[in-house]
Amino acid sequence: MYKVTISYNMQPGKEQECQDSLANKVAPGLARLGFRFSDVWFTIYGNSPQILGGGLVKDMDEARRIFLSDTWLELKTHMERITTDFQMKLVMAREEESQD
Fold it and tell me: Are the beta carbons of 52 and 41 closer than 8 angstroms?
């Protein structure tokens, strides 16, 4: 199993658009591709990305199918226009994460 994390900061004045896009465009679009967020965190204080979300994929083939798709590239491009520091990471999941 692999853990996928997506993080970003919302551009000033575009906070509502970012939240709406994540809830109504990005999450449903990824769900149609087979990826579901298991958690989303909002940073209130500190030097971390404002938004950090993540979920699991079973293997690299699934990760490639989802995150190299035209659908994901369109979603990512949209989010990059209204955010800063947009990043996606893929790491091996810890054993306890992959058993959830």
Answer: yes
Extract the tokens encoding 83: 């955010």
- Interatomic CA distance for residues 37 and 27, integer angstroms: 7
Note whether 15 and 97 are within 8 A (CB).
no
Average confidence (pLDDT) per 10 residues, the chain, 100 residues: 97 96 96 95 94 96 97 97 97 76
> Which amino acid does the sequence have at 7?
S
Q: What is the dihedral of CA 54, 59, 61, 62, to 10 degrees?
A: -40
Question: Helix, strand, coil proportions of the chain in percent (round to 5)?
Answer: 45, 30, 25
Distance CA 16, CA 22 (A): 10
pLDDT value of residue 30: 97
Helices and strands per DSSP (H, E), number in the chain: 5, 4
